[in-house]
Design brief:
With 541 residues, the chain is an all-alpha fold. It is built from 21 helices and no strands. The longest helix is centred in the last third of the chain and has 29 residues.
Length: 541
């Protein structure tokens, strides 16, 4: 095996980033800007709280806000003549009303049933989009932009139902509401004359990420194994798999491609890739393993976005669990006993370690004996609980090496979660940090555009507006810093509420803009609101 060169290892991933950027550039042009200014408040932990936030979000959707673009083309003329607008309005309004009932039902179960909260949050986010759609179709004919939004809403709903299929113990009322909504969704599709939709935007991005991960893995193999017959075999096999992914991207971007064709191409990738995984695992190389984990995560996300049947992948789950146990062993090798004895909850150190180890062993048993995906998910939840207890005891250990090993344990649990196609049910630091960075960037752009607008129009409220816009940008920057520094969610609550409320105030000023900057402010606003709402849902439990 070649001697590792740390500098090179830190530089080489940039090549993968370049590939990803190249693959995504075309896709981003197709994504466009969300026209739903509010995606729905998503914080409520009670039925009353959920209702309050559903109503609260409507202020962002008021008819006094920014006008969304309404393109005029031949497709619009065809739609105006073919769509039964009256029937569509009835179906969309009914969908909106029943979705609100489902949100209340999921909200009631979110504190007692594991895994419900992510589904509840997705349903609440979808409600914001549906509310915007309902308001538009109530007053206007269907144009191409609104058709795209209806198709996206269909894709979002079908994915939400797919995720709900992972849940055990969901109430009979919630199941009935989901069935009613699915029937209404079918009626909406029939009225529009469209097929069941997939989220092509996310599919394109995830497929591009998969191609990039395959490139990085190929580089890792060459770097770790050097020039050998096995390396040539691996390069050739990974090249075939990557080409299949590129074919999938081309199919996704072609809006005429039916879902079964995309599914067939993805299955072709799996046929090429699956036999290769076990052989690569046998190399027992940490860097190659990390590459395999990235590929598996990207592949699982595409599997889910294509709404393919969930399955118990014994080989992958068992291997990931064994890797988790290796990480646990490594943690104790790097953590001297004297440091463990100094922990505040040192008496719990051995019990929580034993609990996590037994949870891993039990999970492997369930995976090997059962093909019931829900049973496997239930068993994994025990690992999640045990890992959280483990972290709570050991997180203050006074050793950088031990903390690094503790982080790898958390990452291994995350890899298992991704393989099971589950979302994290608690505070997701990485996602929160990404969203906080986006919010900060958008508020800074709004500050810049607002100054140009106010200099031109010089309204009476100029000083107050500038003060509020600056305060919003400062508050967003502080929140981002706090999240990046690793503060707990409970310590971020005040800052998050401040950003949310300041944005409502700033928005009240921005809608008064009548200069040419109005369009730019509108575009920024349509990006910022859902980002703030999503971040708030993560930060405030």
């Amino acid at each position: 095996m070649n001697m590792r060169r740390p500098l090179q290892r830190r530089i080489r991933p940039l090549a993968g980033c370049a590939v990803l950027i190249g693959l995504v550039c075309g896709a981003v042009q197709d994504i466009g800007i969300s026209t739903a200014f509010a995606q729905g408040g998503r914080l409520a932990q009670s039925r009353e709280g959920a209702k309050d936030l559903l109503d609260y979000s409507k202020g962002f959707n008021s008819d006094d806000g920014f006008e969304r673009p309404r393109p005029s083309d031949k497709r619009n003329q065809i739609l105006s003549g073919e769509v039964d607008t009256k029937q569509l309005r009835q179906h969309v309004q009914a969908f909106k009303d029943i979705l609100a009932q489902l949100i209340y039902e999921l909200n009631d179960q979110s504190s007692t049933l594991p895994g419900v909260r992510p589904v509840y949050l997705e349903a609440l986010q979808l409600s914001g989009s549906v509310d915007t759609i309902a308001k538009h179709v109530a007053k206007h004919d269907i144009d191409s932009t609104m058709l795209d939004e209806l198709q996206q809403a269909d894709a979002d709903w079908r994915e939400l139902v797919y995720r709900a299929g992972n849940l055990r113990g969901l109430s009979g009322e919630a199941k009935k509401l989901i069935e009613d909504l699915s029937r209404l969704d079918q009626k909406i599709r029939d009225t529009l004359g469209i097929q069941p939709q997939l989220d092509r935007r996310q599919l394109t991005l995830k497929a591009a990420g998969l191609a990039s991960s395959l490139d990085s893995l190929k580089d890792d193999i060459e770097f770790e194994l050097g020039k050998s017959r096995d390396t040539v075999f691996y390069r050739r096999s990974i090249g075939r798999a990557r080409q299949s992914v590129l074919n999938l991207i081309a199919l996704i971007r072609d809006n005429t491609t039916e879902s079964n064709v995309m599914e067939s191409e993805f299955k072709q990738f799996e046929m090429i890739w699956t036999p290769l995984v076990n052989k690569l695992h046998a190399e027992d190389d940490r860097y190659i393993e990390r590459g395999l984990t990235r590929v598996a995560a990207a592949s699982n996300e595409i599997h889910q976005l294509l709404l393919l049947p969930q399955k118990v992948d014994q080989t992958q789950f068992v291997y990931l669990t064994k890797g988790l146990k290796k990480d646990i062993d490594e943690f104790f090798l790097k953590t001297p006993l004297v440091l463990v004895m100094q922990l505040e909850n040192s008496k719990q150190a051995l019990p929580v370690a034993d609990q996590l180890s037994r949870a891993c062993d039990r999970f492997v048993e369930v995976v090997q004996k059962s093909q019931d995906h829900a049973a496997v998910v239930d068993s994994f939840r025990k690992i999640e609980q045990a890992e959280k207890a483990f972290y709570d005891v050991y997180r203050d250990v006074d050793s950088d090496r031990a903390v690094a090993a503790l982080t790898r344990i958390n990452q291994s649990v995350g890899s298992l979660r991704s393989a099971l196609q589950l979302q994290q049910d608690n505070f997701d630091t990485r996602t929160a940090s990404d969203l906080a960075a986006l919010v900060q960037n958008l508020t800074e752009q709004i500050t810049f555009v607002s100054k140009r607008w106010l200099d031109k129009e010089d309204p009476d409220f100029e000083d107050d507006c500038l003060s509020e816009v600056k305060a919003l940008a400062d508050s967003a920057a502080q929140l981002h810093d706090d999240i990046a520094e690793g503060k707990r969610a409970s310590d971020l609550k005040t800052g998050m509420i401040d950003v949310y409320e300041r944005w409502r105030t700033v928005y009240g000023y921005l809608v008064k803009c009548q200069s040419e900057e109005r369009a730019a402010l509108g575009r920024l606003a349509t990006k910022l609101t859902p980002s703030i709402v999503d971040l708030r849902a993560i930060v405030i439990p």
